[in-house]
Amino acid sequence: MSSSALVKHYMTKEVITVTPETPNEEIINLMKSTGHDGFPVKINGEVMGMVTAFDLLLKPWDHAVKDIMSTDVVVADQDMSINDAARVMFRMGISRLPVIDKEGKLVGIITNTDIVRSHIERSTPMKVNYFKKTLEQLYGVETKLLRMKVPTEQLRPTQNKIYADELQGRTYELERGLAEPTITVKSGNRHILVDGHHRTVAASKLGYKEIDSYVIELEKDIKLGLEKTADKEGIYTLNDIEIIDDAQHPLIAITGSLRKNKQK
Asked: How far apart are CA 156 and CA 180, in angstroms?
C-alpha cells in the first residue's frame, strides 16, 4: 500500500472555496464556522489563488479576497503519490495543496493532517493480512479478502465497551470522510466485527446505514472464539456496547500523564 497510496485516496473532496470577489469579512466568518485557516480561490473550476489566515493577519486590510490572496500557489495532481506530496509540503513549508485533475480543475485538497492519516492507515492492510493468515492457520480454512460496504445493522460486535473521547474522534473523522475501514469476518451469513467498534458506533449514531470494511470471508461457517466470548458477555448488537465517559481512552490517558510529568 505504501507505494500505491495516492493523493486522491486521502484528499478531501468536498472543498470549501471562495472567489476573488468574496469579502474578507466573510472569510473571517468562514474560518470561525469551519475551523479551517485557508481556502482555495476558484473561478470556473480552476484555482486562481489561496487565501489564508496569514494573508489576513500580515497584509494591509482590504475589502476583497483578490486584494490579499496569494497567486503563487503550488498544486498537486490527484494521481501524485502521497509520499511525493508530503515531500513537496515539507520542503516548501506549506500545510495544504489544492488538488487538480488532468483538465486543471480543482477536485480536492490535501493537508498535513491527511498525510499523517495516510501513514496511520498503512497499518490497516498489514493488520488485515495478519488476521487473515491467523484465521486460516487456526481453523484450517481458505479465506477471501474483500473491501465493501457492510450494513451497520448486520454487524455483530465483539467488544463490550468503547471510550467516549475516542468515539468523538471517530465521529469527527466520519463526518469528514476520513475514517479508515473496519475489519470484519463473514462466517455463514454473519458479519463479525473484529476491529472498528468506535467507528461503527459513531456511524450508527450518525445514521449511516453502512460502513466501509475489509471483509475476510471464510469458505465455511465457523463459530469464532470472538463470537463465543461475545455470547458469554451478552453482546449481540451495537446497543450492547457500553460507552465509557468517565475514563479516557488508554492512548489519551498516556499522553495526558506524560504532559503532566513535563510540567513538573
From this structure: 19
Instruction: Look at residue 194 and give its three-state secondary structure.
Output: strand
Task: Report which DSSP code applies to 22.
Answer: S
Measured CA to CA, the distance from residue 28 to residue 37 in angstroms comes to 9
pLDDT digit string (tens) for 96-144? Answer: 999 999 999 999 999 988 888 777 666 577 788 888 999 999 899 999 9
Give the dihedral sign, CA 75/45/177/36: positive
Q: Are 17 and 41 in contact (CB under 8 A)?
A: yes
- What is the three-state SS of 195-264? ECHHHHHHHHHCCCCEEEEEEEEECCCCCCHHHHHHHHHCCCCHHHCEEECCCCCHHHHHHHHHHHHHHC
pTM for this structure?
0.59
Set of cell numbers at residue 175: 463526518
Going by the DSSP 8-state scheme, the letter that residue 181 receives in this structure is P
Distance (Å, rounded) from C-alpha 123 to C-alpha 125?
A: 6
Angle of the 82-92 helix axis to the 112-121 helix axis, nearest 10 = 140
- Report phi then psi at 146, rounded to 5: -125, 155
Show the beta-strand stretches assigned E in 45-105: 46-52, 76-77, 96-100
Q: How far is residue 200's CA from residue 8's CA, in Å, rounded to a whole number?
A: 24
Residue type, position 53, single letter: A
User: How far, in Å, are 97, 152, 192, 198, 207 from residue 238 at the CA level?
Assistant: 38, 9, 12, 10, 13
